[in-house]
Amino acid sequence: MSKILCVEDDHFIADMYAHALKKAGYDVTVISNGAEALKELKQTVYDVVLLDIMLPDKTGVEILNELRGPKGEGLPHTKIIVTTNFEEADEDRSKLEALADGYLIKAEVIPSKMVELVKQITG
Amino acid sequence: MEQTPIPTSKAPFIKTILLGHIFNIVLSLGIFSIIHWVLNYDIYYAVGAVVISATIVSIATSLIAGKKIHQPYRQISQELDTLHAQVVSTHAAYQAESKTNSALIERLPLGFALINTTSQKVASSSNVSDLLGITSKVIQVSTLLRALDSCNSNGSAINFSQWLSTLKTKDAQEYRVWPGVVFDSQKNIVTLTGIKQTTACTLVAHYNPQDPDGNDLALIFIDSTDEYNLQDKQMEFVALAAHELRGPITILRGLIDILTDELDDKTKKEQETLLTRLTVSARQLSGYVDNILSVSKINRDSFELQLTEAKWNQIIDIVQPDLTVRARAHKRTVSFNTPDNLPTVAVDSGMIAHVLNNLVDNAIKYSNENGQITVTSASKNGYVETTVHDTGIGIPASVVGNLFTKFYRSHRSKQAVNGTGLGLYLCKAIVDAHGGSIWVKSTEGAGATFGFTVPEFSTVADKVKSDNNKLGILRGSHGWIKNHAMYRR
User: Which residue of A94, B49, B359, B390 pairs with B363 in a disulfide if CB–CB is 3.0 to 4.6 A?
Assistant: First the structure.
């Protein structure tokens, strides 16, 4: 069973994706801030991280930098998918392309679509 | 215009003085001869006195008679003098008024140009060059027409040069307005709100091949740059608000998706209909927000396409289920005629789906209950053309030219139909960016047909490959995922 970490401060959105993913058979953990997410990812290996880019304490790019490290080689077995409702800022684009495995607009990805995408990523 | 002095003659006055002196001399000689004859009885002086007296009498008679004869001419002369004075006064008043009008025209946010397209002569107000971004001080007809030809005509069904060429062929007189025509300047233009390099005008053109002076083309440019800048600022605010709306939309669409799935075998038919309507409305709301954000990108010049080779049938297949559900929810039917053998096209799949969604949405909005919408695609001269035809209320000819303008909503749609007035503007921007064209044909009361073209991949393959090599990961409307088949080139 693939392990999914959903890092999302809007608990309506987090619960919604978690509900659909759990129903599809995934082991889902929800965390609502960057510091806890970093701590959790140091302790547990996840297959997929759905990482909100705007968290109360850290930005997605900051968390990505910490997780991937200076050479971008951290967490090699974890697919990190950034989730947002904002367009990529030009200055973040190259960093996201280098460090993340995906970038999804939440308003365009309904739960059934998210399940479909996660299946393809982990499959 | 230079003031022309009106001459005033002094000749009659000099003539009168001269004649007066001659008369006095002759009279003095006459009196002298008479006195000498009386005192000396000299025959010569007597003859002289007679001659001189006769001359005096003759002159006096002539003067008296002449005075009577010249009386009417004198009156005419006086009337002419009065008239002359009036002309001088009127001329001065006209010149003063003309100066005021010129000053007023120069201060108005308007540009005027009167053109003789045959002799290539143009008379224009001084601000025309600024409004059109022409750098040369003296405007040539060819420069002016070239500026109009290359201008962004903001979605009008026919551009200026097409319009002029058609009228010249038909030798017909016509008046036409292009709102929101944008000119990119080669120089900085100082306006009331700062220095800009882009101006926006409403262009009013009148072509009259029978003009008596040969000035067959009259143009008025109404400067609306500041209005457009204000719209841009409003757009920035709306875009910010739209971003905020994406959060609740995500939840709304997500929960409807979960409920639809989980209640699949538990709902009655009426409840299914309600859920479908919820799904369609939430998708529509999401579509409005997407339109606003896309237009905002266009305003910020950060709108970019990633063209790739795609099968048109596959793009239609992606949008077809959602559009079919939307049409059915509004009690309309939509059918798709897409031949299997269409050539591949060069498109940004996510963006071109926006065009199809917007055009079919419009057809749904403006058609009647149980109306039929037909989406037909065909290969045409290096392009794939797709038309969206509805049997609805149609569009009056008077508003067709404005349909693709930002924020434009027809008089009927303002009250009867929801919308942002951005959908068709965005469609045109997307189609233009693909190198295609978009158009509309309609008869009021008899439906409308919107059509657009996208280039066949083979015609632009080299450019697409070159552009894509410069870009990073391929993006779709949902975002991107590395090494995912959906996002792989």
Answer: B390
Domain end marker among B105, B127, B157:
B105
Are B249 and B282 contacting, i.e. CB atoms less than 8 angstroms apart?
yes
Q: Is the dihedral of CA B351, B448, B327, B311 positive or negative?
A: negative
Distance from CA of B193 to the nearest CA of A (A): 28
Judge: A112–B257 Cβ closer than 8 Å, yes or no.
yes
Highest mean pLDDT (candidates B113-122, B177-186, B336-345) = B336-345
Residues from chain A that touch B254, judged by Cβ atoms under 8 A, are 13, 16-17, 20, 110-111
B334 shares a domain with B478: yes
A122 touches chain B (CB under 8 A): no
Q: Is the ipTM of this complex over 0.85?
A: yes
CB < 8 Å & 24+ apart, contacts of B61-67: B63/B23
Tell me the per-residue pLDDT of B303-356, one tens digit each, with 9 for 90 and over. Answer: 777 788 999 999 999 899 989 998 998 899 999 999 999 999 999 888 899 899
CA distances from B459 to B23, B237, B452 (A): 103, 40, 17
pLDDT digits (tens, 9 = 90+) for A49-82: 999 988 888 888 899 999 998 887 889 899 999 9
Domain region containing B247 = 225-287
Rounded to an integer, the average pLDDT of B20-39 is 72
Q: Cβ of A3: how many Cβ atoms within 10 Å?
A: 16
Q: Which fold has domain A3-122?
A: Rossmann fold (3.40.50)
Q: What is the mean pLDDT of residues B281-310?
A: 80
B246 touches chain A (CB under 8 A): yes
